[in-house]
Amino acid sequence: MERFYTCSCFFRDNIFLEEYKLHVRFVSENQFRKDYQNILRSLGCVSESQFRDVLGKIHAEIERRQHYELKSAERAATIKEIYTPLHQHVYYLQESFLAPEFLQLVKYCTSTDATMEGLMNLIQTEAAPRVFRFPVFRKEFCKDFIEELEHFEQSDAPKGRPNTMNNYGILLSELGFDESFIIPLREVYLHPLTALLYSDCGGSCLDSHKAFVVKYAMREDLDLSYHYDNAEVTLNVSLGKEFTEGNLFFGDMRQVPLSETECVEVEHHVTEGLLHRGQHMHGALPISSGTRWNLIIWMRASHERNKLCPMCGKRPTLVESDGFSDGFTMDPDDTSSTLSCSLT
Fold this sequence. Notes:
Elements: E1 5-7, E2 15-17, E3 22-24, H1 29-42, H2 48-66, H3 68-82, H4 100-109, H5 116-120, E4 124-125, E5 132-135, H6 139-153, E6 169-171, H7 172-175, H8 178-197, E7 208-217, E8 224-227, E9 233-240, E10 243-245, E11 248-253, E12 264-266, E13 272-277, E14 280-284, E15 287-300, H9 302-305, E16 318-320
Antiparallel strand pairs: 1-16, 2-3, 4-5, 5-13, 6-7, 7-15, 8-14, 9-13, 9-15, 10-15, 11-12, 11-14
Helix pairs in contact: 4-8
């Protein structure tokens, strides 16, 4: 497998301050005060003690990121050693898990006469531009998958946060889903669709991913703030269980100011996936009852991100790391590259 890297921006860029719903960059305290103190005051961070509390959370997050790869590998090893799955079969992707409508889309996209126009006649489009909806899994699989996730959640095995914005969920690579489930799902079934739908932004050359599940429940995470993903293309599948409200909403691309954006609400139905560009700003409205599990796959194209890091908007400086990391690769023809850019 190709060696993947992360971008050095990972350690200090795009840190999410949950209390203030704000993403920030931290290089030094002086820089941070200059860039964000007035903004934070307008959001309710008015005292020095509140500001110091913010700084403490930022330093803790930077430390977490600095040890992320090591801690993740340690958790994965411990999970493999002590955790006994409830439903072993869900770890191995089978065509019987997949919805017939999804298989029909894949069959069309892999045919020799497939065109974008033909695909548009088969796939459901949303009011948000270039957001597509289609059934992904059968209900029986979603039920077994959630039972497995809940079984793991209730176990004593260690658990890592999926990302800086979701407090509840599971990193699927640590649980052992990558090799036999997520990789074939991306390469065999999703790639034919993304190659037609998003060829202009890496959809035809997706070569890595980060996959996780997130959980929304009463007294836990209810919603998800407006953001963009560390991905070229994202698949978001609603797995269940029973819940009310909690639709997604989409704005414009990340380069467009929020003041110039009109958001569009998109319903999210169990077993169905929403496919969209990673840089398309979006969020999730709060659920009002029940529990909702979502499968998220951030799909990445090193061909695109090697030129421009999608998180810091600069040419990436690469840092060595393990696994798929953040999906950057070292260009052997580019002698100017140094090892150092990343974000989770």
